[in-house]
Amino acid sequence: MEIYSLRASNNFLFRDNSRNARPVDGTDFGKAAQPDAATGFEETINRIDFTRVSPRELREIAREYYDAGKISHDTWLELSSELPAQTLNANGEVIDTADVTDDTDFDFVTYFSDRMEIARSIGTADEVEKMQDVLSFLAST
């Protein structure tokens, strides 16, 4: 083991810095263009699988679309509303959703598709139209 004096310590620290040095290619700087926020948001939305998204994420996405004027107020309300503790599927079976939290992945495509089928069977024309708007939003993003 070698011992160096304190006066030589500065020279020692930088003595063999060629091992740690990495070449920097100056041509890489400035090549990456800054994407604008709207384009980045649209690309993020296009990658979302609404069969596996949390209620919180769905509300955030719906809010962005509503603020941008891309969905109606009724569609935003449906997308951002809380899930009931229990719901029916298209076959009339009771589905327990009490364990779904804001951070739990949930299949919203099936949920709203089942609601659409129920609205067609026993609902009003307004309810059917709302569900069609919600499903077209889920299909287009």
| Biggest sheet: strand arrangement | 1-2
Report the strand count: 2
- Separation of termini? 65 Å
Specify the helix fraction band: 40-55%
Radius of gyration: 27 Å
Shape descriptor reads globular
Major sheet size, sense and barrel closure: 2 strands, antiparallel
Strand content: under 5%
Number of helices, where a helix is a run of at least 4 consecutive DSSP H or I residues: 6
Mean pLDDT: 79
Describe this protein with a few key phrases.
141 residues, two-stranded antiparallel ribbon
Question: Could you characterize the architecture of this molecule?
Answer:
The protein has helices at residues 9-13, 37-46, 55-67, 73-80, 108-122, 125-140, and strands spanning 86-88, 94-96. Helix 3 (55-67) packs antiparallel against helix 4 (73-80), helix 4 (73-80) crosses helix 6 (125-140) and helix 5 (108-122) runs antiparallel to helix 6 (125-140). Strand 1 (86-88) and strand 2 (94-96) form a beta hairpin. It contains 6 helices and 2 strands; from the N terminus they run ααααββαα. Helices cover 48% and strands 4% of the residues. A two-stranded antiparallel sheet has the order 1-2. The protein has a domain at 50-141. The model is unreliable at 8-14 and 27-33 (pLDDT under 50). With 141 residues, it is mainly alpha-helical.
